[in-house]
Amino acid sequence: MKIAVLGLGRMGTAIAQRLAQGEHELTVWNRSKGKAEELVRNGATEADSPEEAACAAEVVVTSLANDEAVREIALGDRGLRSYIGGRAYVDMSTISPRLSEELGRTFEIFLALPVLGAPQAVTAGEATYLAGGPEATVGLLSPLLGSLGGHLKRYPRPGQAATAKLAVNLMLLAGVATLAESMAVGREGQLSDDELTDLLCGSPMLAPGLKNRFEAVLKGSGAAWWTTELGAKDAALAVQAAGRSAAKLRVAPAVRDLYQAAADLGFDNEDIAAVSRLYR
Ligand SMILES: NC(=O)c1ccc[n+]([C@@H]2O[C@H](COP(=O)([O-])OP(=O)(O)OC[C@H]3O[C@@H](n4cnc5c(N)ncnc54)[C@H](OP(=O)(O)O)[C@@H]3O)[C@@H](O)[C@H]2O)c1
Fold first, then answer.
1. Atom of ligand 1 lying closest to residue 64 CA
2. Residue 66 CA to ligand 1 centre (angstroms)
3. Closest C-alpha to ligand 1, atom 5
4. What is the three-state SS of 48-86?
5. How far is residue 11's CA from residue 142's CA, in Å, rounded to a whole number?
6. Verdict on whether the full-model pTM lies above 0.85
7. Alpha carbon distance 55, 251 (integer Å)
8. Cα–Cα nearest to 174, from 251, 73, 270, 241
9. Which of 87, 173, 248, 267 has the smallest number of Cβ neighbours within 10 A?
10. How would you write 94-130 as a 3-class SS string?
């Protein structure tokens, strides 16, 4: 397939790298230059604008930071909707269910496809994709979905896929924050890092998704897969998505504020594990 990938952040680059391994003609675009070099060396073409990239493709994929970025690129004055024609549009960003539904109403062929998993899982073909949209669109996109590999969960509507993504992210964000607080409690009671590792790593309470970040939470830093800034954004979206139930949420607003505090302290471009520095 001829595929355009718009947005070459950590996730967009992983998606493009994975697709580049398939039998596709890949065109890529990123707002700031200098992020496409390796992809170009591996056969992709870099476009100068989203329009140039989209016009070279049958399917346009976006992987962008937040609602504002997706709104600008998809629905802005010179956005995708003004030139995409009958091509398919797949949004893989983590955005609000409301915006995802709006994209579904605006574009003739649209699939919400948020990603569960780190960029490394995408590259390895081990991520889970939450596909929200009609069955016919999933069928049309089967060459792209086949190349991504991993697992596919199906939802009839784009907003449901976006909601599913936020529900999972909230669990991980809250889990990392709770792990950081458990360590703070242990340290206050004179438990060493070795004792904490022995105690918590061996505990059935530590979910596999948290085990992956144990060392980083213990040390307060690690490779940045998913930044505190994006974590704060996702927790805020979860609170917003809870709608009328939001008034009853207690943990999600606290989680949002914690990651926002970490981002405001200058850890905005560090992994969510950096939230543990709030406790030092
Ligand atoms: N990283 C993960 O583990 C992970 C996992 C699942 C889902 N996601 C989701 O995937 C999406 C991308 O995440 P990421 O980790 O790749 O983030 P990232 O590394 O921070 O990259 C963000 C991307 O968005 C672009 N962007 C931001 N504002 C823009 C605007 N106004 N117009 C055009 N482009 C804009 C950036 O362009 P510049 O380079 O020019 O700044 C960059 O390409 C997010 O929605 C995130 O929540 C991430």
1. 24
2. 7
3. 118
4. CCHHHHHHCCCEEEECCCCHHHHHHHHHCCCCHHHCCCC
5. 20
6. yes
7. 44
8. 251
9. 248
10. CCCHHHHHHHHHHCCCEEECCEECCHHHHHCCCCEEE
Could you tell me the distance, in angstroms and rounded to a whole number, from the CA of residue 7 to the centre of ligand 1?
7
Nearest CA owner, ligand 1 atom 48: 11
Question: Measuring CA to CA, how many Å separate 102 from each of 70, 110, 145?
Answer: 11, 10, 23
Digit-coded pLDDT (tens) for 244-271: 888 899 999 999 999 999 999 999 999 9
**Residue 197 carries which side chain, given as an amino acid letter?**
T
Phi, psi of 31 (to 5 degrees): -55, -50
Question: What is the spatial distance between Cα 91 and Cα 205, in angstroms, rounded to a whole number?
Answer: 34
Is the pLDDT assigned to residue 91 strictly greater than 90? yes
- Determine the distance separating the centroid of ligand 1 and the alpha carbon of 190, expressed in angstroms: 40
Q: Provide the pLDDT for residue 222.
A: 83
Q: What six digits make up the tokens of 2?
A: 């001829």
Indicate the top mutation candidate among 30, 64, 122, 229 to test ligand 1's pocket, ranked by most ligand atoms within 8 A of CB: 64
Tens digit of each residue's pLDDT (9 = 90 or more) over 190-245: 999 999 999 999 899 999 999 999 999 999 988 888 999 999 999 999 999 998 88
What is the DSSP code (8-state) at residue 151? E
Residues with CB under 6 A from ligand 1: 7-12, 30-32, 35, 63-65, 69, 72-73, 93-94, 115, 118-119, 225-226, 230
State whether residue 152 is helix, strand or coil: strand
45 has a pLDDT exceeding 90? yes
> How many angstroms does the Cα of residue 181 sit away from the middle of ligand 1?
28
- Please tell me the distance from the alpha carbon of residue 37 to that of residue 13, in angstroms, as a whole number: 11
Read off the amino acid at residue 8. L
Among 200, 116, 177, 178, smallest CA distance to 150 is for 116
Which residues lie across from 116 on neighbouring strands? Answer: 128
Contact between 100 and 91 under an 8 Å Cβ cutoff? The reply is: yes
